[in-house]
Hints:
single chain; Aldehyde Dehydrogenase, Chain A, domain 1; 2 domains; 7-stranded mixed sheet; 6-stranded mixed sheet; 15 helices; 41% helix
Amino acid sequence: MGIASINPATGETIQEFAALSDSELEQKLTKAAATFETYKTTTFAQRATWLHGAAQVLEDNKQAYGQMMTLEMGKTLGSAIAEVEKCAWVCRFYADNAASFLADAPATTDANRSFVRYQPLGAILAVMPWNFPFWQVFRFAAPALMAGNVGLLKHASNVPQCALAIEEVFQKAGLPDGAFQTLLIGASRIADLVADDRIKAAALTGSEPAGASLASACGRQIKKTVLELGGTDPFVVMASADVEAAIKTAATARMINNGQSCIAAKRFIVAESIADRFEAGLREQFAALKVGDPMAEGVTVGPLATPSICEELAAQVQTCLDQGATALIGGDVAALKAQLPEELQAGNFFPPTILTQIPPGTPADQEEFFGPVALVFRVASLDEAIKIANSTPLGLGASGWSQDPDEQERMINELEAGAVFINSLVKSDPRLPFGGIKRSGYGRELGIQGIHEFVNIKTVWVQ
């Protein structure tokens, strides 16, 4: 099976890659297992040197890596370069903190000495998505490698150049051959891969079906998984909020990565008394966005990653409109494409869209809209806002806007999500744990919690 890199702005095939043969995959697994036996004995200081080296490689090549991301999945060049810089940050964060995060933790018992020791597990499989093709991988790899594990990456099939480049980053940084390897394989081979005894655990960022499939395969083998899945993140704005700040942040929060982010704000739940003002301001922000070639300066919204994503989003929007919703702006793909230059006509472009007056029972109630579409709901009270916010099966992030301390505390306590950000957009940060609840997944990445996911938390009792 071939693996292709296709420019989503033009539909042009950039390069095709052959998937690994069974024998080539076996060689990589053998190398990973052999490398782990020596890599696990390296010191934190040595691993930190390598991770600092990876950070430097990233920063030295951020323009080239940014262009690669933009060509393969369509994010704007500026955001792609910023993504590379964030990857350097997470490498440095764990290089500087892993030794303390994984230091023996003493416990007071009736033993002469008792403590907890953290030890690596072995080869960890990372199944990663295309939307943040560098960041998703590095937020897994930095803690996993600093803990003494080795990594195997099964990246999304539409970003093979990024997948190979990431392996190259670690090679250039001086990590042992086999400490981090990219596997160019299709999704159909994952179940057999996790059945291999040399794979000790797996992490996945992606869709609910992908997460359920990996968790099922790992469950049959009694292997640990960490899953970060979808989100229908609420953005709750109460009357006490700084409405102008909320409007400006709302547009940014919805348009992160051309709207293709699990933690992008998707459902805007707004107090009735300020809803007219909020909708008018949000429409003005959306109208100012520039859709086009993501490599071009001034473009703020590029194409969606694949034609199927564009088609699914269009179907979701049309269903809402057919059932009575109103498009405050956007919604018409054909009208947008008519305004684009000829070389972009085959691209996967979708207009920034705001849907309001959405009746109950539409896809907006439960489904994730993975693209530049904002869904606005009006509420009469904070009780109603929290009820709507929690009404989906997903629970990744939530943003709450209020200057009332009591309202803030209620949102912190009652919004069902892995993260609640007050008066700010939701974002990942190496210093804080990241992950969701409900069908948004389980386990955590980043922070001290992230590095504890793929280690043996070993109790030691000395009498």
